[in-house]
Amino acid sequence: MTGDELRVMALALPGTVEYPHFDRVAFKVRRTYATLAPDGASVNLNLSPEEQTHYADLFPDTFAPVANAWGARGWTRVDLAAASAPSLDGALRAAWTRGSAQRP
Hints:
The chain is of the alpha+beta class.
């Protein structure tokens, strides 16, 4: 997968908008659910900690917790070159669901 393919997938999800976020490109509905690296090689997804564990266990060469406190909250780095379309689609939709949920 590539950054351009990720962008197409994200913008196809209902209500998604793209905006600049520091040095990255971000995608959000109500909240940010994905940020694309400037080089387009990786994306960080806002997964639940349980979803993060699920994807990292199934695809350890593709999915890993972000290496900071955000990673402990579920933010997950995805190596796009190693990602298959089905695995990325599932994780992106999970992140979109979290981004579209109302805060309690």
